[in-house]
Amino acid sequence: MTEQEPAIAAVTAFWRALGLPGLIDVHVHFMPANVLAKVWAYFDRGQEGSGLAWPIAYRLPEADRLAVLRQFGVRWFGALLYPHKPKMAAWLNAWAGEFAARTPDALHSATFFPEPEAAGYVAAAIEAGARLFKAHVQVGGYDPRDELLDPVWGTLSEARVPTVVHCGSGPTPGAFTGPGPISAVLQRHPRLPVIIAHLGAPEYQDFLDLADRYPFVYLDTTMACTDFMDRIAPFPGKLVPRLAAAAERIVLGTDFPNIPYPYLTQLDALARLNLGDDWLRAVCYFNPARLLGL
Ligand SMILES: [Zn+2]
Description:
By secondary structure, this protein is α/β, with parallel strands linked by helices. Helix content is 44%, strand content 11%. It has helices at residues 5-17, 33-44, 62-72, 89-102, 118-127, 137-140, 150-159, 179-188, 204-213, 227-232, 240-245, 264-271, 277-292, and strands at residues 23-25, 74-78, 106-107, 109-111, 132-136, 163-166, 194-196, 217-220, 250-251. The two termini are 30 Å apart. 44% of the residues are buried. Zinc ion (ZN) binds next to loops.
């Protein structure tokens, strides 16, 4: 992995200069190999999704992906996975439990789908130690207001376990993406901890408003403000002060390994917002540490 060495030096220099012990990246994906292969095949067909070529920068075997994260100094990372159809989430959760057991720096992650078994397997996953969930409203094609999910949101709210929710309409809109459906869920479960993926791209303002309204709404930085994302869903300069105001609600996410650029690109994108070192320290370490009890 010698070709990674300059990249490793640049990433570790970033957090060392901030005086941090490393990074906490809430939005990283680890999945069973056959599922990840399907995700990569989807990105390889980039044109039909985002309309952009999407070369996966870290298309590596699992052990090598873990090694890269550790060499970058990512102390904790999500291991997010999600189903695109029914009868799949419980199996994914079983894999995720095994993965977490053999990967001490991975945050034990889990997922769900609107199906009658969801309330039961979500409670079981929390019981087994899951501390981070993922809901992909666009890929799953479901309505987060589905009544089969109401007990799931209730359980997650009571347990104070956050869910990374991909509910913005970028890079590809779905029938239930956008701020409306998830806002209705929060109206019913106002203390539900959610992490809006991709800063809510492209509906940045609406999702920042949601963080103002609800005390446990966070936003992850995944892909946001990079040149790549700014071609699809530019982050409006007039909202940069809102990122400063929401400093305690923003957490580092990257989408590693499924990114079309080096890991450092995300860190550079955050640094060039010019919100200061305290903001970067909060986002890259202290906010996720507090939210996840690390
Ligand atoms: Zn993702």
